[in-house]
Amino acid sequence: MSVLEAPRSAILTRSARFQVSRGMSTILGALVMLFIISAIFAPSSVSKGAVLGMLPFAAVLAIIGLGQTLVVQQGGIDLSVAGSVSLTVVFVTKLPDQKDNRLLYAVAVAFIVSLIAGLLNGILVSRLGINPIVATLGMSSLLYAVMMIVSLGISHRTTVLLNNISSNLTLGIPNSIYFAIGAVIVTTLFLKMSVAGRRFEGIGANARAGRTAGLAVKRHQTSAYILAQLLYCLGGVLLGGILTQPTAYQGDSLVLPSVATVVLGGTSLLGGRGFPAASAVAAIFLSQLDQFVLSLKVPYAVRTLVTAMALLVGIALYSVNWGLVKKKILSALREKKVGEISHG
């Protein structure tokens, strides 16, 4: 048994579909502790205005994190997040040219391009066997190239309609939060309640067993990249509305956090069962963590380092078999003690 063996098989044997996962309980506890620490050391980061300002960006990260979760469940990773989100933001700001009646056309173009990008990612990874990192990084570069052709790297103002849809409050809560909740519910119902979702998780846990059972493994793997791109697009559309004049490179800062939400939510990087709701809570945790660090007035490089450290902590919590580590340490100590006695 390996020290880095993920508790994947043990997780998959549990019968309760909506059982609170270890990842959910861990990230909820961490989120509560973070808010307490923020209230003590940086009270401004938990004020009503600060929280309302943070939640829309947390919603965007949650939606993007859901897409990354689906890809990771199939044992892959998607680095095309940056290019996909950036291109979507350009589409929904450049194409309408601040005219509300052209917004629907721009959103449709964004989703069609995302659908094509997801299909190409899936073909490259599942059909041609190209490494996911190489394939999706190349796709991100291609999407950036399209973005430069469309916008020349110049930022544009969003439409009033999209800004209202994304940023206005309903019952005191930013509208983008409702989009994130809807995405979480749909993704969770798909994975936990549908036959296709259970096959999807089973193939992610053991693709070879899936092939033996006659399941369409490559089709499910391709669908993960397609669904992920559609979710990235939804996040990009909302982001294009939240920011009145987003940059053409708005997705650059979302690659690492999207992976961190998956890991902190408890989904194994080896694939298998996923936890969409926990990934969404992890997005709130990371957004609040970023706001807390920002309130301390530290450099941007430190903020990025904090996110990377959170990712490493998540990997250590869920991927390392700490029981086996403990046994190996105790065994080494016993052998050392026996050796000292024999030489003494």
Automatic annotation (TrEMBL):
Keywords: Cell membrane, Membrane, Transmembrane, Transmembrane helix. One of its GO terms (cellular component) is plasma membrane. Its main location: membrane. It is found in: Cell membrane. The keyword Isomerase does not apply. The lineage of its organism: unclassified sequences, metagenomes, ecological metagenomes. It comes from freshwater metagenome. The chain crosses the membrane at residues 24-44, 50-72, 102-125, 132-153, 173-191, 224-242, 300-324. It is a multi-pass membrane protein. This is Unannotated protein. InterPro entries: ABC_transp_permease. The keyword Protein transport does not apply. GO terms for molecular function: transmembrane transporter activity.
